[in-house]
Amino acid sequence: MSASPASPDLHARIVAALTLARRNAKLRQVDLAKRLGWQQAYVSRLETGERQLSVDEYVAVALAIGVDPVVLLGEVMAAD
Question: What does the chain look like in DSSP terms, one character per residue?
């Protein structure tokens, strides 16, 4: 089985899922940033796609929101 390239919008869908999870958790960007020790502007740049989200940042953000990063990624992939 050969690896297929990720769909072009995968990053955008992952970020959208994290943003929705943050909102569902009733967290503002500033609240999430405080939990992570980041600036609110950095969270904003991640959510708008201005910055690419690294794997370690994805895991940190998901955990800070209170969602399981593996489950969330599975949901994103299943929606493909």
Answer: -PPPPPPTTHHHHHHHHHHHHHHHTT--HHHHHHHHT--HHHHHHHHHTSSPPPHHHHHHHHHHHT--HHHHHHHHHHT-
